[in-house]
Amino acid sequence: MTSSSSRPPSPLAPEIAARLKRGADGLVPAIAQQYDTGEVLMLGWMDDEALHRTLTTGRCTYWSRSRREYWVKGDTSGHYQWVKSVALDCDADTVLVKVDQVGAACHTGARTCFDADVLLDGDSDHAGDGAGDRGAGQ
After folding, report:
1. pLDDT value, residue 134
2. CB–CB of 99/34 below 8 Å?
3. Please, where are the H alpha helices in the chain?
């Protein structure tokens, strides 16, 4: 785990950098949500630099964990995310970026990354499978 003293200076405003709770890899999850419909589009990862770029350019910048490089949504695909607002969750360990998504958000070409593998649908009949017991014992 990297200590805060060995981490390079953050490009973020000091009041944001001080609050942000990063993982051991220096990253925070960033949820992209369509600003006007509330549709959850995708999850990406940001470090301080990616968040700084997102806040200052008006376009979502993420850190690719596999390629180990920054990428701006839409630079390759043309499927841009225009930033409308950015917020931290109550624990300051997740970023919510409300965007105006142009085209597909998912690398598969789908509008959202969360529509292909639905594990539970509130409109489905789950009689007898225990799904109705959610919350029991909590």
Report:
1. 45
2. yes
3. 14-19, 48-57
CA 128 → CA 75, 107, 120, 133, distances in Å? 48, 36, 14, 10
Burial 100-118 (b: 16+ CB within 10 A, else e): ebeebbeeeeebbbeeeee
Helix (H, G, I), strand (E, B) or coil at 17: helix
pLDDT at 126: 56
Q: Is the pTM of this model over 0.70?
A: yes
- Indicate the SS3 state at residue 82: strand
Dump pLDDT digits (tens) for 24-53: 999 999 999 999 999 999 999 999 999 999
AA letter at 125: D
Residue 103, Cα to own-chain centre: how many angstroms? 17
| pLDDT, the chain, mean | 88
**Cβ–Cβ under 8 Å, residues 61 and 75:** no
Contacts for 80 with CB less than 8 Å, ≥ 6 apart: 59, 73, 74, 101, 102, 103
